[in-house]
Specification:
It is built from 3 helices and 12 strands. The chain is an alpha+beta fold and about 160 residues long.
């Protein structure tokens, strides 16, 4: 990208020149660059990631405005991180869930930040020694894990 500094002829120029060069104004300077290219349409995965990013950004903005949540994220942030970054990271990454079905349903949720509740079928699991427990119910059932950022991780158990 070329920048014209002392050229009275090109100062303030903008537009396409011969299909090969584009003149633009950036911060009061005339910049020459190649023409923009057309990008292929976004895939479903890219769209889903954009929505996830947008939701995480919205959560982080709201969390920083709330004094209680901001204090929480200030306490868990890394040295070169802001409370906004910690809240964004929390909202962007869903918890990892492992469900063990034996005499009872045991849910082990691995997340960066606290799990708020775990729903098994229509009931709620109870936290016991860093794992969530629920009496065995008829199969199939659905396990939903909610974290502090509003992420919901769902697993359907059929066996």
């Amino acid at each position: 990208m070329a920048v014209y500094k002392r050229n009275s002829i090109m100062r303030g120029a903008s537009g396409n020149f011969g299909g090969e060069l584009v003149f633009r104004q950036r911060n009061g300077k005339t910049v020459i660059c190649k023409p923009p290219c057309k990008y292929p349409p976004k895939t479903a995965t890219q769209i889903a990631n954009q929505e996830r990013f947008s939701r995480a950004n919205d959560f982080a903005k709201a969390a920083v405005k709330d004094p209680v949540k901001k204090a929480y994220y200030q306490s868990i942030k890394k040295p070169n991180q802001t409370a906004f970054n910690a809240a964004f990271q929390d909202a962007y990454h869903k918890p990892e869930v492992e469900v063990i079905v034996e005499e009872k349903v045991v849910i082990k949720a691995k997340a960066k930040h606290p799990i708020v509740k775990v729903q098994v079928g229509t009931g709620h699991a109870v936290l016991n020694n860093k794992q969530w427990e629920f009496p065995l119910i008829e199969k199939p059932f659905t396990v939903k894990v909610y974290d502090i950022a509003g992420n919901i991780c769902t697993q359907e158990i059929r066996t």
